[in-house]
Design brief:
This protein is mainly β and 633 residues long. Among the domains are: 115 residues, no CATH class; 60 residues, ligand-binding face of the semaphorins, domain 2 (2-Layer Sandwich), CATH 3.30.1680.10; 103 residues, Immunoglobulins (Immunoglobulin-like, Sandwich), CATH 2.60.40. The strands form 10 sheets. The protein has a 6-stranded mixed beta sheet, with no helix packed on it.
Length: 633
């Protein structure tokens, strides 16, 4: 079984599965949490310079100005009575008898709702635009019960989203529920039997062609009641409700009348349980020349994570056309789950509501594009969070870029377009290794916000200076945010809007494209030749620093004889030994990628039979590293 699993993994992984470049970011504005935050929730308004960070006993409001960040704290402590009651319970975890912020959502232009666990008795406050808590007539902070709005424990999975002033909450408690829990519309919830111990991951608004067709999607893991002996006990689910749902008139009066759910599988139909547990998901809306896509991070029984992509057209079509699981009769013309206004002539009849009451799951299983993952992360890391952006490249073509957070505090920047998936770079912005617990992307300002339990930072989406000042190094990066500016002779950010200037930029994002840099970049001069004289009995090895982890590296002596090199993380090292006897001559290390050839380093090696005074040398990567006594000339 284990060998079959590994074989299937290799079959799925047709794309580059390791980051092409690896950057340690030292200039990003990092804010550290002194004692760490057990629960880190992020909220960011598109176009704003502020980031809201929820933690233990306080809401942090971070304001970014270029490379600086200023912090304002709004204390939100647990009620004394609730804390005392929490600590009196047998087996109470003392650390959880506090107020952990779990929900931060904007209700309207002037109000943000903030909800916390409040030592097991959830409570919500309202924040004005001036970062102050709204107050009642007595001058006290205005607060309401958050029992149905937020989880009671920082460890309970939950999801929340605000749409047109209403808060939608999905709580993983004794009885899992999806609710419209606050706002001007009628408050609704799921029936108890519709969800089986669901653990919620996230939620998203999916706009329809008309406002009344807007849907709210919820992503969660659920107990697999029908699992066989060889199947996993957990399955990933996708649930949706209509924004216009106001409950039934005689049946399902206080419940959703449009709730439907479907199984979400990351893998092929023949092996649906391979990546069965959902870690995170994001819906990337339709952009110009690009369809809406759903991206999810899934885990296997062995802990390996994979990324799957789903067409939102196919997802919505499945909800509109699929049979209902277990229902054998012909469905009525006005199907259960259809989004129609409450007082519409097509509003669901009692007969339709009785169907959805007993059969809320569609029969169609949602499989990814190509019926396989985009790729499987084949390292010791696992993915924890995902956000996505839609980018117009230099040719005005829509490209999808994913940012995937790992359990080691890294971020993978991934180009996903058509059948191509490339991990452009691995970014390391944090001082401490900890799982990425929150991410927010702002396409308007061009920034990515990332948090762990210990640190939070802001990164530019277009960091074109990382790709150096040559055309082909810029082009090989395959970063749709960046292109080579032949007039300015540098790698520059491409505007998000279509314009004549961007069309002059040079890019090569598609495989097997022509050499766009021909004549645009001068020949790159190799590093200074290193002259080395060594004792023929010495043991030496020559390092060649890795510029790209997707390139093919070659050692060549005197322009003809090739030597093998050993990949050891940061270098492709030439090691002399029985299979590669040491010889004098000119040794060059070159890197080849997509038809481009770069000379990385060169050594002029001569053998010296005379006695040489001992000299211990240790030189950093990029120079010569010897475990011998040598003389540098």
């Amino acid at each position: 079984m284990r060998s079959l699993y590994l074989f299937l993994l290799s079959a799925f992984c047709s794309a580059q599965k390791i980051p092409r470049l690896k950057f340690t970011l030292k200039d990003s504005p990092v804010l550290s949490f002194e004692n760490g935050e057990k629960s880190t929730v992020l909220f960011h308004d598109a176009g704003s310079e502020q980031l809201y960070v929820g933690g233990r006993g306080a809401l942090r409001i971070l304001t970014y100005k270029e490379s600086e960040v200023n912090q304002t704290q709004v204390p939100l402590l647990a009620d004394e009575k609730a804390e005392k009651n929490c600590r009196s319970k047998p087996g109470a975890v003392q650390a959880e008898c506090d107020n952990y912020i779990r929900v931060i959502q904007r209700l309207n232009s002037s109000s943000i709702i903030v909800c916390g666990t409040n030592a097991g008795s959830p409570k919500c406050w309202f924040l004005s635009n001036d970062t102050r808590l709204q107050q009642d007539k007595r001058g006290q902070a205005l607060a309401i019960s958050g029992e149905s709005l937020a989880p009671a424990s920082p460890s309970q999975p939950a999801a929340a989203i605000a749409v047109e002033g209403s808060l939608y909450s999905a709580l993983s408690q004794d009885r899992s529920t999806i609710q419209r829990s606050y706002g001007p519309r009628k408050l609704l919830r799921t029936e108890d039997k519709w969800l089986a111990k669901a653990e919620f991951v996230t939620a998203a608004l999916v706009p329809g062609k008309e406002s009344h067709l807007d849907e709210i999607y919820f992503f969660y893991n659920e107990v697999n009641k029908t699992a066989g002996l060889d199947e996993e006990p957990v399955k990933a689910q996708l649930g949706r409700v209509c924004k216009v749902d106001e409950g039934g008139k005689s049946l399902l009066v206080d419940f959703w009348t449009t709730f439907l759910q479907a199984r979400l599988v990351c893998g092929s139909p023949t092996h649906p349980q391979r990546f069965n547990q959902l870690h995170d998901a994001v819906v990337l809306g339709e952009g110009r020349k690009g369809q809406g896509m759903l991206y999810g991070i899934f885990a296997s029984a062995w802990g390996t994570t994979a990324v799957c992509a789903y067409s939102m057209d196919k997802v919505t079509r499945a909800f509109k056309t699929s049979k209902l699981k277990g229902y054998t009769n012909i469905l009525p013309a006005h199907r259960p789950g259809t989004c129609v206004p409450y007082n519409s002539p097509n509003a669901p009849s009692k007969a339709v509501l009785s169907i959805i009451k007993d059969y809320p799951e569609i029969e169609t299983v949602i499989y990814p594009e190509g019926q396989r993952p985009l790729y499987v992360l084949q390292t010791n890391d696992t993915y924890t969070k995902v956000v996505a952006d839609r980018v117009l490249d230099a040719s005005n073509t829509s490209r999808s870029v994913l940012y995937l957070g790992t359990d080691k505090g890294k971020i993978h920047k991934v180009l996903q377009t058509g059948g191509q998936t490339v991990i452009i770079a691995e970014l390391s912005p944090f001082r401490r290794d900890a799982p990425i617990s929150g991410m927010a992307l702002d396409a308007f300002t061009g920034h990515l916000y990332v948090a762990t339990e210990f640190e939070v930072t802001r990164l530019p989406l277009a960091d074109c200076g990382q790709y150096r000042e040559t055309c082909w190094k810029c082009v090989l990066a395959k970063d749709p945010y960046c292109g080579w500016d032949p007039d300015g002779k540098k790698c520059s950010a491409i505007s998000g809007e279509s314009n004549d200037t961007a069309s002059n930029f040079l890019q090569n994002l598609d495989p097997e494209a022509e050499d766009v840099c021909e004549g645009a970049a001068e020949q790159v001069a190799p590093e200074a030749l290193k002259k080395v004289s060594v004792d023929p009995t010495s043991y030496i090895y020559l390092p060649c620093p890795l510029r790209s982890h997707h390139a093919i590296y070659t050692w060549v002596k005197d322009g003809s004889k090739q030597y093998p090199c050993a990949m050891d993380g940061h270098s492709c090292t030439l090691r002399f030994g029985e299979n590669a006897p040491m010889d004098q001559g000119l040794f060059k290390c070159t890197a080849t990628e997509d038809g481009y050839l770069e000379e990385i380093t060169a050594y002029k090696l001569t053998l010296n039979a005379a006695c040489i005074p001992p000299l211990s040398v240790t030189v950093a990567a990029g120079a010569l590293f010897l475990v011998v006594t040598i003389l540098l000339l």
